Amino acid sequence: MSKKIIKRSWAEPYKIKMVEPIKMTTREYREKCAKEAGYNTFLLKSEDVYIDLLTDSGTNAMSDYQWAGLMMGDEAYAGSRNFYYLWDNVKKYYGMPYFVPTHQGRAAEHIISKIMIKPGDFIPGNMYFTTTRVHQELAGGTFVDVIIDEAHEAQNEHPFKGNIDLQKLEDLIKKVGAKKIPYVSMAGPVNMAGGQPFSMQNLKEVYALTKKYGVKLWFDATRATENAYFIQQREKGYENKTVAQILKEMCSYFDGIWVSAKKDLMVNIGGFLATRNKKVYEEARNMVVIYEGLHSYGGLAGRDMEAMARGIEEMVRPENISSRVRQVEYCGKELEKFNIPLVKPYGGHAIFLDAKKFLPHLKQDLFPAQSLAAEIYIDSGVRGMERGLVSSGRDPKTGEQRYPKLELVRLTFPRRVYTQSHIDVMVESIAEVYDKRKSIKGLKMVYEPKYLRFFQARFEKIK
């Protein structure tokens, strides 16, 4: 070569074996669809979506290895061999001896909340997640955000914005008493902060603090491999460790974990909870029978558990996790060329648009993130989702709106689904909407369900 290559390009670590056609639509058609859906992207029909970045939950492409495993489903009601294979991999990769399968992650959240939370309890955590918080509240608890302040600043480039503020946590323990705190809830990366990880150093410090006061520490490990990858890339002393090794060390500091297998494990359905606490395990194993199914299937078919077991093996492979994060990084860099305001650093699973800066002329009461998600869909058929005022919901005691500092649109990348060309189309669409941003007038909410309103709320455009 006559030209010296400074940096080599990378490509996806897979090749396409099967394709799923997607429908091309006109702007006029999408305007009609958006209006019928009440300008809520969750209420759109998937067949009317061109590039679906609503979520990475259950929307991933399984590998040929996983699909082959579906043919090996042992559909026995009790004691399926797939259950034991999955349990073995939970022990091997997460280091947790006790395991209970559930049909998805929020079922595990529900069971843990029912077991551990009493009315009047407080659950500190590194920023809320929607389903986690509602289960904690329904059990009679109150979530308390103890994340570092930098997490609420979209453009702050702190490498570990998912860290817990130790002073905030200790102040809460001293204020309400350790007996009023059933566990500290730690997620990584933190979804609502823009997919931001915590550091291993912070985790060790949180572990030491909770141990000092006799408080349990639980982990939402739904996207834990992404957190492990960021630790590998950003934290001194971990650059030569594998993602699998870092994942296992992370989990060693927790009393237990809950997981939505629809993310890291790259399956279409599934979840589980795992713990080193035998008492919690016995209660969970009993409770899962009431809500989900027998403790050896938890609402899942044997073939689903086989795909999950194989997904655990694949999720820690360096080429899989690095290509996933690089795809998000590519998107972020392309958007920055158009000066699109984003949450920084880029997340592990999604790009988050800063709707407050994107639409500074809209007050938060006009739902800027919801409005922006709707306008992007109308422009190109790209579906993202709101993570702001609508997702934050109302205070269950006062009924007042919660006003989060972050008002975001999340564009989430399903694993192994879209190509760089799809990203380019999405970037160009967002740039087009940004050019015409002053014409966006906002929305008003005309229907609001009691719980998790972002899934079903309906809106009308402000005239």
UniProtKB/TrEMBL annotation:
Swiss-Prot/TrEMBL cofactor(s): pyridoxal 5'-phosphate
Reactions it catalyzes: L-tyrosine + H2O = phenol + pyruvate + NH4(+)
Residue ranges occupied by any Aromatic amino acid beta-eliminating lyase/threonine aldolase domain in the UniProt entry: 52-428
Gene3D superfamilies found in the cross-reference section: Aspartate Aminotransferase, domain 1, Type I PLP-dependent aspartate aminotransferase-like (Major domain)
GO BP term (any one): tyrosine metabolic process
Keywords: Lyase, Pyridoxal phosphate
InterPro entries assigned: ArAA_b-elim_lyase/Thr_aldolase, Beta-eliminating_lyase, PyrdxlP-dep_Trfase, PyrdxlP-dep_Trfase_major, PyrdxlP-dep_Trfase_small, Tyr_phenol_ly
Residues where N6-(pyridoxal phosphate)lysine is found: K263
Gene Ontology MF terms: tyrosine phenol-lyase activity
Enzyme Commission number, as recorded: 4.1.99.2
Pfam families membership: Beta_elim_lyase (PF01212)
Assembly mode: Homotetramer.
Family, as annotated: Belongs to the beta-eliminating lyase family.
Protein's name according to its UniProt entry: Tyrosine phenol-lyase
Organism: Stygiobacter electus
